[in-house]
Amino acid sequence: MQPNRGVRLVLIILFTLLTGYLGLQLAELSFKVHWYEDAVSHFTFKGKGELVKLLIRVLFALLGLLAGFLSASKMIRRVAVLGHTLEETPPRDKVAMILGLTLSLGLTALLAFLFYKLIPDNDVLPVLLTLFSFVVSSYLFVSATMSMSNEMWSIFFAGRSPGRTRPVMQHVKVLDTNVVIDGRIADVASSGFLEGTLYVPGFVLDELQYIADSSDPLKRARGRRGLEILNEMQKQTLLVVRDFDNVESIHPSDPVDQKLILLAKHLDGAIVTNDFNLNKVAELQGVRVLNINELANAVKPVVLPGEEMIVQIIKEGKEANQGVGYLDDGTMIVVEGGRRHIGEHLHVVVSSVLQTVAGKMIFSQIREADDPTRAFRTERPVRVKR
Predict the structure, then answer these.
(1) Secondary structure (3-state) at 297
(2) Could you tell me the pTM of the whole model?
(3) Topology of domain 308-376, per CATH?
(4) pLDDT at 323 over 90
(5) Is CATH 3.40.50.1010 the classification given to domain 173-298?
(6) Cβ 168 vs Cβ 130: under 8 Å
(7) Tens digit of pLDDT for each residue in 36-86?
(8) Is 274 exposed, middle or buried (0-12, 13-18, 19+ CB in 10 A)?
(9) Which of helix, strand or coil describes residue 120?
């Protein structure tokens, strides 16, 4: 959660003033090495030393202010992401982190005492060694305690729930809004053909909720259908929502498609969609895409020229004398001579199959035994000569 504009402005000002003050302190430290004395020796007027010191203080303070102002926004954003991550962290992991940091502080305090005793004539080296010891010991202790979080929770908080376990994300499939609303993903997931974890980002869920609250009845119905499908999928499959949205490269103002691509890259997963444009853009950026439409076309039964089938003529075709019907899987079949048989079931023979981007289209002709016009194509009667 990002801080609002007023709080953000105050934080930027405070951080900028802090870095300006640090720059001023750095100037004071630099005076102890007397590096500026050679430059001052070129001037002959009275009070030249104090003037140079003043200019150095102003210069270091301005550099500190500039550095703070340029880095404040990024720093605040990272702190906000860290805060959100801590909110989502299970209680047992928080306890493990606090314990690890406490042990690290204790060891660092002991080492700092030893450093100042062993190096009494140097004020800088003990500080650097202490900071280095704190960083290394914090990493080691926190890693150790996090790996034993379950055991420590059972020891110190016996009988209490360890909180929500963070799922292991392997072979991640990131779902986009269109494929959720489409609904076929629920059947594919329940059949077990999708390996790994299905992940719904928070911004996809927000978009679904926005569509479900639309004033347009059609959009509202589509949004509610998507939310209902997610609820059903969460009961039947391993579906994770919002847990891994904290990616530094994703900005809140980025388009949803770009967020999906960046998130899939971060999770080393694939995008599941039926959006043709998203499919092409993601592939260009090196992200694997699973297109539900391509899957549907791949599992349709293969139809070869010469095969016979029964089809109901639903409507007229584009060309003269054509009728149009549909197979059970939704494949369109065009029947030559079927215009006169709308509403009827006919035996037809497949003449050709056309594969397009939108799907498969079958062209056929009425079987001769069922074609009422075949009587007009009988052989001519033999004329007897007298």
Answers:
(1) helix
(2) 0.48
(3) OB fold (Dihydrolipoamide Acetyltransferase, E2P) (2.40.50)
(4) yes
(5) yes
(6) no
(7) 555 555 555 445 567 777 887 888 888 888 888 888 878 777 777 777 666
(8) buried
(9) coil
